[in-house]
Amino acid sequence: MSHHQTSDYDDTTLRIREHYRQALTNVWRHFPAASRLIVLEEDLEVSPDFVSYFSQTSHLLDLDSSLWCISAWNDNGFESTSSDPAALYRVEHFPGLGWMMTRKSVQQLLDVWPTEGEGYDWDLWVRKDSNRLGRECVIPDVSRTYHFGISGSHASGAYHALYYQDHAINQVPDVQLRNVNG
């Protein structure tokens, strides 16, 4: 394979990464007054309180400069380990799978977005410490999203069964989150 050819994986990775870059860039053009955005992928189910969850937590991004994002997903939020829909945690990684950032944080990512020659999946690239800059994310004990995509560009049915199948998703419609008053 010459250096000008790419594998199907690389083509898919580049196409998806470019799609996200364009979407994150264009959202401000279409919503110029917006101060933050929520990214939700097409293969996610949302909880009944998804909008309320972000409504209750969005101001935290304004109050605390050490926060980078609010995520609806808990990587460790399995049915056997997570049961308190009102509890929140701070984590030192980017969980993804339904997240909110400020305009400034998104622009910081766009300013250093990988070039075509850099072979990163967009979501793995976002998780790099050099992008997080020491900031943290807020996550729920019980996730507000559920990944239902059994297979996709970079996931198989076996991967889904291992990592996503037993994740809890909140089913309570009117959760009042704890510790969200700045």
TrEMBL record:
Enzyme Commission no: 2.4.1.101
Taxonomy, superkingdom: Eukaryota
Record has Oxidoreductase as a keyword: no
Annotated pathway: Protein modification; protein glycosylation
Cofactor note: The cofactor is mostly bound to the substrate.
Presence of keyword Thylakoid: no
Keywords tagged on the record: Glycosyltransferase, Golgi apparatus, Manganese, Membrane, Metal-binding, Signal-anchor, Transferase, Transmembrane, Transmembrane helix
Reaction equation(s) it catalyzes: N(4)-(alpha-D-Man-(1->3)-[alpha-D-Man-(1->3)-[alpha-D-Man-(1->6)]-alpha-D-Man-(1->6)]-beta-D-Man-(1->4)-beta-D-GlcNAc-(1->4)-beta-D-GlcNAc)-L-asparaginyl-[protein] (N-glucan mannose isomer 5A1,2) + UDP-N-acetyl-alpha-D-glucosamine = N(4)-{beta-D-GlcNAc-(1->2)-alpha-D-Man-(1->3)-[alpha-D-Man-(1->3)-[alpha-D-Man-(1->6)]-alpha-D-Man-(1->6)]-beta-D-Man-(1->4)-beta-D-GlcNAc-(1->4)-beta-D-GlcNAc}-L-asparaginyl-[protein] + UDP + H(+)
Family matches, as InterPro entries: Glyco_trans_13, Nucleotide-diphossugar_trans, O-linked_mannose_GnT
Task of the protein: Initiates complex N-linked carbohydrate formation. Essential for the conversion of high-mannose to hybrid and complex N-glycans.
PANTHER family: PROTEIN O-LINKED-MANNOSE BETA-1,2-N-ACETYLGLUCOSAMINYLTRANSFERASE 1 (PTHR46396)
Protein name: Alpha-1,3-mannosyl-glycoprotein 2-beta-N-acetylglucosaminyltransferase
Source species: Amphibalanus amphitrite (Striped barnacle)
Gene symbol of the encoding locus: POMGNT1_2
